[in-house]
């Protein structure tokens, strides 16, 4: 059957593993709902409309409402934090009122954008007037504030020890946090199901590693099975 013993672990051949996978049937409707969930949660409105038309899969939400959420996200990803805050307050002012950590991260991003623009004096004033009181009220924010203000000590901020704050990825991180908060306020899922399933796959492989030697998926992007090493 292609199985043997490698130490205390069972060895499962690629052929046997592929046969088992071929025996698993996932309904197409379930796959379509998974795709639609990803498109809706991530805000790909036009793609969701096209997918609904082609597959007949209902989005389960008003797609027009997604546009407002995406405008907030685009503003933040473009560095216009003030506009993003105004837009989210128009959607639901309680979102930022009830989430001090999210509000701090938005203000932190405003400070980063001031530093990016070379406005040192404005950055210092903004930090003192807006971020310092938040850190005083919530001491857990102090370390992040200190890291951000430290950018002002370097001429080349991107090459500094805290240069990661200047990366586009930092904007994306804050945008994702805000996007999740809006979704939660609208009683929608905060994260698409697909990434959660991939995390579950990695967890399951880690558990199976303790019991067997088997074909693994090493690269999630390609999903190619890597055959188990041959026994000596």
Automatic annotation (TrEMBL):
Residues 65-122 form the CTLH domain. It comes from the Eukaryota. GO terms for biological process: proteasome-mediated ubiquitin-dependent protein catabolic process. This is CTLH domain-containing protein. GO terms for cellular component: cytoplasm; nucleus. PROSITE patterns: CTLH (PS50897), LISH (PS50896). InterPro entries: CRA_dom, CTLH/CRA, CTLH_C, LisH, Ubq-SigPath_Reg.
């Amino acid at each position: 059957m292609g199985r043997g013993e490698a130490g205390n672990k069972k060895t499962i051949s690629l052929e046997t593993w592929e046969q088992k996978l071929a025996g698993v049937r996932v309904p197409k409707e379930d796959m379509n709902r998974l795709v639609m969930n990803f498109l809706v949660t991530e805000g790909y409105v036009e793609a969701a409309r096209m997918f609904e038309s082609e597959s007949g899969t209902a989005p389960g939400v008003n797609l027009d409402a997604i546009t407002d959420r995406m405008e907030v996200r685009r503003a933040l990803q473009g560095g216009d934090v003030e506009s993003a805050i105004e837009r989210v307050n128009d959607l639901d002012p309680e979102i930022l009122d009830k989430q001090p950590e999210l509000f701090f991260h938005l203000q932190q991003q405003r400070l980063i954008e001031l530093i990016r623009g070379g406005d040192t004096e404005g950055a210092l004033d903004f930090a003192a007037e807006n971020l310092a009181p938040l850190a005083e009220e919530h001491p857990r924010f102090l370390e992040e504030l200190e890291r951000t203000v430290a950018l002002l000590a370097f001429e080349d901020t991107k090459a500094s020890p805290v240069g990661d704050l200047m990366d586009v990825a930092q904007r994306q991180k804050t945008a994702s946090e805000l996007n999740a908060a809006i979704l939660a306020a609208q009683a929608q899922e905060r994260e698409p199901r697909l990434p959660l399933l991939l995390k579950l796959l990695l967890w399951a492989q880690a558990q199976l590693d303790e019991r067997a030697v088997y074909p693994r998926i090493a690269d999630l992007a390609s999903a190619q099975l890597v055959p188990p090493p041959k026994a000596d």
